[in-house]
């Protein structure tokens, strides 16, 4: 009735309209007649406006409805102005016929009094029309506003509908056949959960809006409350189902990890058995060592595994599927087989350990001995048969008869899968093995062999840098028929990935071997070379580790190799100030430090943000998002900063930018400062040698003693911090400071 008020308008203005005719009074003045006609016109206009409201179709969108309401409101105020204008006209006319309340008023003509009554009645009717019109309009506008509110509420209700999300989460399986499967589904569920949280937030806002509408006595309060209850139920169902699915997948992942741990234990056991040097085990010492490894596996590794199928089935009963039950049983069978193999080998070695045999030499085996080794990787025998991996896998990738088993995307990618393994094999088989064999009678020369070939070991760094790409390719196609067929031909118990890991394991064993040799060498000849070789291998491990982190940098648009050799990498808390001049620590204390992973190169200090992501079948894999870098030619350092002994300061471009760095440990801080010092000293030496001094402008170093400055075209000079001339640093930002204690300045021209 209110939105299309035909009946209301007709009833109101019919009752209010002229309740008289021209016969009811005599219009003796044209002014009264004109005023009466004007009042009648106003009544007809209001009637027409009501008819327009009744017959106009409402739009089907809130924007158009609001526009229509705006137009009607404007028309309402226009009609109000017309009514007020006519009211003023009537009041002026009334005053012309007004009879004063005096003794003489009784003598007023009856005709004039009749005119006054006529105008008075017309004004009263006009006032009644105005009041009725205002009351009608207020109700109509309120209902129209509520209609728009309801329309928007319905639209928001549709947008916040969670039913599609409930279907999406239901489509995510609640189990998986491997940790990689489950992690992928957890990732998908996590993405849905983030989207669902945003949607639930919108739904809660819609529910709040609905409660506000209901509290304001909206005419559709029952519908609004129904929608709110429906939306609340949907969000509750979605939240509960997401939590339940996440809990089930997390439990499944825990089981899959337990199964994977057991399988890795089986692989470790098979690898241990396959790589025990049976020729050395013929001697008592070799048999005892092999027996120790076996008993450690049986008595420590297997019991720590705590793998009991009955316990697992009780613990994970709510998530077990027929497939998972089959996996549990298969792993149990594999563990029993491994245990049986170890027990048989244990019995054999116990008998050998009781016998007396010749002493064992800790040197690399001769070719004819190594040829009998069970390890398929880096066997020192010559010829194609000496390297099963390169022949049994890599060469088979070029075999036309094997193409039928090979996925198309795997073809032509052997260099990614195997990296530079052929180069490593050639180095060991033709160079390093011969060097070690030459030390059989002079083992004190082993350290020299490592030092002589230290540059050759850089091939391991190349292999390790390619390892992530190799692992990714393997994970994608590990179950392909090609690899299954190759493994079957080679009769390998372990998959290819176990052998692809061997070069990395070999690299870590070198330093262990050298430590063992040093342990038993005492003060004999060659100890110095062994120590240097150990340092070289440890440096190589650090370099490989740093370069592996470097390969995870993303977002750097240039070529990282242009920054020189990577020297250090590590995590720091960082405060930054971009103001010129000195900065007090309290200024930094206001800000929360940023967590940054820094890479120190010969020519730049690179700032990255560490991020973690899930890799298939692996733990979280870090990568580093590039933020910015500082040129080493424009930095200086302050070694000690108040507040924390782990902090030091890096300032850039004459302290235009200041970085407070907090290392994780004092040892880390000392190592970084040492490397930065080396770079800055090298830059100073280059400047002293007239090597493009302009490239090094802005570098410097401030210490507790003072600053050493150089200036283009001037000699170096030392300025104690207690000297009032220290203000020269701020006055001359082009100066370059280097940290030196007074006794380090010998030989420099300080004039």
From TrEMBL:
InterPro entries on file: DBL_dom_sf, DH_dom, GDS_CDC24_CS, PH-like_dom_sf, PH_domain, RhoGEF_Guanine_NuclExch_SF, SOS1_NGEF_PH, Spectrin_DBS
Keyword entries, A-Z: Guanine-nucleotide releasing factor, Phosphoprotein
Domain spans labelled PH: 565-681
Signal peptide: none
Domain DH: 417-547
Keyword Phosphoprotein: yes
Protein name, entry field: MCF.2 cell line derived transforming sequence
A Gene Ontology BP annotation from the UniProt entry: intracellular signal transduction
Superkingdom: Eukaryota
Gene: MCF2
Gene Ontology terms for molecular function: guanyl-nucleotide exchange factor activity
């Amino acid at each position: 009735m209110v939105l299309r008020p035909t009946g209301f308008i007709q009833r109101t203005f019919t009752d209010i309209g002229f309740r008289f005719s021209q016969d009811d009074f005599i219009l003796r003045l044209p002014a009264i007649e004109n005023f009466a006609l004007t009042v009648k016109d106003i009544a007809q206009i209001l009637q027409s406006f009501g008819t327009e409201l009744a017959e106009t179709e409402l739009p089907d969108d809130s924007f158009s409805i609001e526009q229509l309401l705006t137009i009607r409101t404007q028309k309402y105020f226009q009609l109000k102005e017309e009514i007020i204008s006519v009211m003023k006209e009537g009041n002026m006319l009334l005053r012309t016929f007004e009879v004063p309340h005096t003794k003489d008023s009784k003598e007023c003509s009856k005709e004039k009094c009749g005119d006054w009554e006529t105008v008075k009645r017309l004004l009263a009717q006009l006032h009644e029309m105005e009041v009725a019109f205002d009351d009608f309009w207020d109700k109509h506008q309120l209902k129209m506003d509520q209609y728009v509110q309801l329309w928007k509420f319905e639209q928001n209700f549709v947008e916040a509908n969670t039913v599609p999300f409930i279907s999406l989460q239901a489509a995510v399986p609640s189990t998986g056949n491997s940790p990689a499967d489950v992690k992928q589904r957890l990732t998908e569920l996590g993405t849905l959960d983030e989207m669902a949280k945003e949607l639930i937030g919108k739904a809660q806002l819609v529910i709040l809006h609905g409660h506000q509408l209901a509290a304001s006595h909206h005419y559709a309060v029952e519908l609004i409350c129904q929608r709110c209850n429906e939306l609340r139920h949907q969000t509750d169902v979605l939240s509960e189902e997401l939590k339940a699915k996440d809990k089930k997948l997390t439990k499944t992942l825990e089981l899959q990890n337990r199964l994977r741990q057991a399988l890795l234990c089986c692989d470790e056991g098979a690898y241990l058995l396959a790589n025990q040097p049976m020729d050395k085990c013929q001697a008592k010492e070799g048999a005892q060592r092999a027996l120790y490894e076996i008993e450690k596996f049986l008595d420590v590794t297997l019991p720590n595994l705590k793998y009991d199928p009955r316990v697992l089935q009780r613990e994970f009963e709510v998530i077990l599927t027929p497939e998972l039950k089959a996996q549990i049983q298969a792993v149990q069978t594999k563990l029993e087989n491994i245990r049986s193999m170890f027990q048989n080998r244990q019995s054999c070695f116990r008998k050998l350990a009781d016998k007396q045999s010749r002493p064992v030499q800790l040197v690399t085996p001769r070719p004819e001995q190594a040829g009998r080794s069970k390890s398929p990787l880096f066997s020192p025998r010559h010829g194609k048969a000496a390297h099963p991996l390169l022949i049994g896998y890599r060469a088979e990738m070029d075999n036309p008869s094997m193409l039928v088993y090979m996925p198309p995307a795997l073809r032509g990618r052997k260099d990614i899968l195997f990296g530079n393994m052929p180069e490593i094999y050639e180095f060991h088989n033709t160079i390093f093995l011969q060097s070690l064999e030459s030390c059989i009678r002079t083992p004190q020369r082993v350290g020299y062999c490592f030092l002589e070939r230290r540059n050759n070991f850089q091939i391991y760094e190349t292999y390790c840098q390619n390892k992530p790409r190799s692992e990714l390719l393997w994970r994608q196609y590990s179950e392909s028929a090609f690899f299954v067929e190759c493994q079957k031909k080679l009769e390998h118990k372990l998959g290819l990935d176990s052998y692809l890991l061997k070069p990395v394991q070999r690299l870590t064993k070198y330093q262990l071997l050298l430590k063992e040799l040093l342990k038993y060498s005492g003060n004999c000849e060659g100890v110095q070379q062994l120590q240097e070789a150990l340092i070289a291998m440890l440096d190589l491990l650090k370099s490989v580790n740093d370069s592996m982190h470097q390969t995870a940098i993303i977002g750097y648009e240039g070529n990282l190799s242009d920054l020189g050799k990577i020297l250090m990498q590590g995590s720091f808390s960082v405060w930054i100030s971009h103001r010129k001049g000195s900065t007090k620590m309290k200024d930094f204390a206001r800000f929360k430090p940023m967590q940054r992973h820094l890479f120190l190169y010969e020519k730049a200090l690179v700032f990255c943000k560490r991020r973690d992501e899930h890799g298939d079948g692996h733990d979280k894999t870090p990568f580093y998002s590039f933020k910015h870098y500082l040129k080493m030619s424009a930095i200086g350092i302050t070694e000690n900063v108040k507040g924390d002994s782990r902090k030091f300061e890096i300032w850039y471009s004459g302290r235009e930018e200041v970085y407070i760095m907090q290392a994780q440990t004092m040892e880390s801080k000392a190592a970084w400062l040492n490397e930065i010092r080396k770079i800055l000293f090298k830059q100073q030496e280059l400047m002293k040698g007239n090597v493009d001094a302009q490239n090094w402008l802005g570098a410097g170093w401030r210490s507790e003693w003072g600053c050493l400055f150089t200036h283009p075209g001037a000699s170096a000079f030392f300025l104690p911090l207690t000297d009032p001339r220290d203000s020269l640093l701020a006055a001359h930002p082009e100066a370059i400071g280097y940290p030196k204690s007074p006794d380090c300045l010998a030989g420099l021209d300080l004039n």
